[in-house]
TrEMBL record:
The chain crosses the membrane at residues 21-43, 55-80, 92-110, 136-153, 165-182, 194-219. This is Metal-dependent hydrolase. Keywords: Membrane, Transmembrane, Transmembrane helix. The keyword Transmembrane helix applies. It comes from the Bacteria. The keyword Metal-binding does not apply.
Length: 230
């Protein structure tokens, strides 16, 4: 899952408007930020496969150092600790942790039995919707995103906050990550190490740049506080 994770953060932000957007939207991708770095560093292993739909085009051969349940808990906990130190708020830290772990939970339906219980465990999670439904799993993710954004829009409207730009941006991201426009489709055809290095790089920045853009949008809507508190 990709853009669906940001929709989870948007829904949480709408439900808890006093929680800053930054820890939520970065938290929604912490596990994959680490994943991209692990892939680029060679600790995680991916393999280009043009038949791996809907938009990844890489087989996730080994991603236990970030996407196993144990490591997801550890990375989420470390991120929450960082947020507690920075914001001096246990409440914000809790929601940062929650958003990060919801990433793992949202991955379970789509991943293809590659979410281990702990590194090198034979116990794997993943319902395999990517493999089972192919391009239609992208449509399922869009529906998932739409439902969450509809809730976020409704809840934010109560606080006189418009999510027009957030919705437009995430809609554009979902189209850009379609089975036809995904940059991974080309990168998967490259030889290693170029393929896995570029894959890791795009995964990491893909969970940093879009969240920061969304945080900037929220900050523009609330100029009474510093941007990282918006």
């Amino acid at each position: 899952m990709y853009f669906g994770h940001f929709a989870v953060a948007a829904a949480l932000k709408a439900a808890k408007p006093n929680v800053p957007a930054l820890p939520l939207f970065i938290g929604a991708g912490v596990i994959d930020i680490v994943n991209g770095l692990m892939i680029a560093g060679g600790a995680d292993v991916v393999r280009g496969n043009p038949n791996t739909l809907p938009y990844l085009y890489f087989d996730l051969v080994f991603i236990d150092w970030d996407h196993s349940l144990l490591m997801a808990l550890i990375w989420s906990g470390l991120f929450a600790l960082l947020c507690k130190v920075f914001y001096k708020s246990g409440r914000i830290a809790w929601f940062a942790f929650l958003c990060s772990m919801l990433h793992w939970c949202a991955d379970v339906p789509v991943h293809n039995q590659d979410l281990a219980l702990y590194p090198y465990s034979d116990i794997k999670f993943g319902w395999g919707w990517w493999e089972k439904y192919g391009e239609w799993s992208w449509v399922i993710e869009i529906v998932f995103m739409a439902l969450l954004l509809a809730f976020a829009w409704w809840r934010s409207a109560k606080d006189n906050i418009s999510l027009k730009w957030q919705t437009l941006f995430l809609s554009a991201v979902s189209l850009q990550m379609s089975p036809w426009l995904s940059p991974m489709k080309h990168i998967a055809t490259l030889p290693d190490p170029a393929a896995y290095l570029l894959h890791g790089f795009l995964v990491t920045i893909g969970y940093i740049i879009p969240p920061l853009i969304l945080v900037w949008v929220y900050a523009r809507q609330n100029k009474t506080v510093k941007w990282y508190w918006a």
